[in-house]
Design a protein that fits this description.
This is GNAT family N-acetyltransferase. This protein has 245 residues and is α+β, with helices and mostly antiparallel strands. It folds into two domains: 78 residues; 157 residues, Gcn5-related N-acetyltransferase (GNAT) (Aminopeptidase). Helix content is 30%, strand content 32%. A hairpin with a 2-residue loop joins strand 6 and strand 7. Helix 1 packs antiparallel against helix 5 and helix 2 crosses helix 3. The protein starts with a strand and ends in a 6-residue tail after the last strand.
Amino acid sequence: MLADSAPDSARFGIKVVRGHLPAGTPVKDIIDEVTASNATLIILRATAGDSDAIVQLQRRGWPVIHADTLVYYGIDLTILPREPLPEGVRLATGADRDAIHETAESSFAGYRSHYGANPLLPRDKIVAGYIEWAKSRLAPENAGSCTWVVTAEDHVAGFATCDLRPDESTVEIVLNAVHPRFSRRGLYGQLLKGILQHYATLSYRQLVVSTQLWNYTVQRQWLRAGLSLKLAYDTYHIDRRLRLP
């Protein structure tokens, strides 16, 4: 269940592993794997409300932080009408890298993610992680990924990174943001509409996107665009540095 998270380990200077707990996994198996791990930080995701293993870990003295609840929204692309891309929405190029960097840095500086729930993770490195994540889909080796931007006043005002899974006929928006300087202009709605239209035209069947439960503003945008709530996961941090002797 646990696998090395090389980017997190490099960023924070500690060994970090991640794991997803499939529904129905025996509690003993989860406890045994956590106990056997030598990682400083273990990040676990479980179906929201499925906390039996987490409670047992806490009873055994493990310092477990409930770091966030992640909600997934989705939409059936086959029912959308075919329309042209909204004005200002286009695929990003390498020339947009600096603008995407600036947008991510400004947008996520105070954002409450699961990393922010851990008091031992430096805030500047958390933001650096979002910047790295935002630019990662511009890398040429990511053939199954891409980045979209929306422009205003001849500037890149927002971006959305996407992972494409043609075998599942699914596109996932992995990370998205609009620069605070361009907020409240409807630009995020434009960007989302453009992405929906593009992949509907390419005959993808569904689009999914996720955010923290408390990010209400973007969820209202998704509902207006026709997306609906599909899944929810709880994220937990088990940080050995918080454990009592």
